[in-house]
Amino acid sequence: MNTQSRIKILLVDDDPGVLQLLSMRLEALDFEVVCADGGKSALATLQKECANIVISDLRMDGMDGIELFEKIQQQYAGLPVIVLTAHGSIKEAVSATQKGVFSFLTKPVDKDELLSSIHQALSFSVDRPSGHSVGSNIITCCAKMQQLLEQAKLLAKSDINIMIRGESGTGKELLASAIQAASDRADQPFIAINCSAIPADLLESELFGHVKGAFTGASRDNKGLFASADGGTVFLDEIGDMPAPLQVKLLRVLQEQKIRPVGSQQDISINVRVLSATHQHLEDAIADGRFREDLYYRLNVASLSLPALRDRRADIQLLAKHFLHNIGLRANSKAKRFSPAALCALMAYDWPGNIRQLSNIVEQLAALSPAAIIGEAQTIAALPQSKNPASELPPLAEARKKFEREYLEQVLASTKGNVTDAARQAGRNRSDLHKLIKKHQLNPDILRNAKT
């Protein structure tokens, strides 16, 4: 199924002829269209049914397109709005985009330009669902991430142990939680523990429990996390930091599905699935004797690798807008916005701390910005070691190649690997697009065969 068939557009114009013509054009592109003959009618429609995007005329009697947008922003935060006008001006366009209108297009609207704006608005809307049963809370428009979520969805339905790899801050625990939520253990406990955050002499007791009097301070029995998660899932973060003696005991638990609390002489049967995560290269740790190879294979029945944020740059502004939106919700105030130049500065940075670092920077910018729009200079100043991002820019040929690949990934993702639809969306003929896909060694079949 073409993904556009699931997209509902609310079309608003007080000219019946324009409304009918544009509605027919959008329906011909497989969008579902709901029409409203003015701002009040549009707001009434939104109370009765959901829309993925609103396309509104600017000049309308009673309530113009900007006023409609402002009311939509108040009542339906995150719903993208595209404004059309037959009397476009630079001043109006700048004013509209500063207020948060996603795109400002001049009539007569070019079909390809409108289609491109619709796809971009849907990609960067903070409320857009990912379309995956795994990761509905994972925000992405990156083809690499969407393929990862498809793999996770398949693995979630099995009961095998999974190791999640990725740099610190890439969202390994979030992915583990999403796998649990999509599994048959969804209504059972999900318990996460960071193996590097607990002293080695206490980790065994935390994992497997202890009996009263087992050691100084053990004034009562403690079930431990594995017993507490019985029937559900245990997530062991930073598994590479687990002490060697405890690795032996964990291996036994995985083999026998039994635990023995510290100080006890009796085993307790459990039924848990183990998801683990690491930012380390465990193969090196095995070679150095720091990690048991047999434990590695027990934990790594299947593996998922989360890309670094710098390798999914299309998601940077999507995530930044999401974090800023949530900050506004927490503060019960109107959300601030990034200027286009500020978003470019965020996307130019390499984010060694990944999503966690991005979230922290957005929190800082939201707290320190006195204005509703967060600007470029303030954003650059908040980025560590990026006072002069222009000096870090790659050569033009390298930047063009990277952009071309990321664009192809996104356009193929939006068409579920349909090369014909992707070529039409990209404004290229099919053979040219095939050459580009081959050049960048992309595989449309992965997306074409994926189920949502």
Automatic annotation (TrEMBL):
Annotated positions of the 4-aspartylphosphate modification: 57
Name of this chain's protein: Two-component system response regulator GlrR
Residue span, Sigma-54 factor interaction domain: 138-367
Any GO BP annotation: regulation of DNA-templated transcription
SMART domains found in the cross-reference section: AAA, REC
Pfam families according to UniProt: AAA_lid_14 (PF25601), HTH_8 (PF02954), Response_reg (PF00072), Sigma54_activat (PF00158)
PROSITE patterns: RESPONSE_REGULATORY, SIGMA54_INTERACT_1, SIGMA54_INTERACT_2, SIGMA54_INTERACT_3, SIGMA54_INTERACT_4
SUPFAM superfamilies xrefs: CheY-like, Homeodomain-like, P-loop containing nucleoside triphosphate hydrolases
MF-aspect GO terms: ATP binding; sequence-specific DNA binding
InterPro entries, per the entry: AAA+_ATPase (IPR003593), AAA_lid_NorR (IPR058031), CheY-like_superfamily (IPR011006), Homeodomain-like_sf (IPR009057), HTH_Fis (IPR002197), P-loop_NTPase (IPR027417), Sig_transdc_resp-reg_receiver (IPR001789), Sigma_54_int (IPR002078)
Keywords per UniProt: ATP-binding, DNA-binding, Nucleotide-binding, Phosphoprotein, Transcription, Transcription regulation, Two-component regulatory system
Keyword Methyltransferase: no
Organism the protein comes from: Zhongshania antarctica
Residues of the Response regulatory domain: 8-122
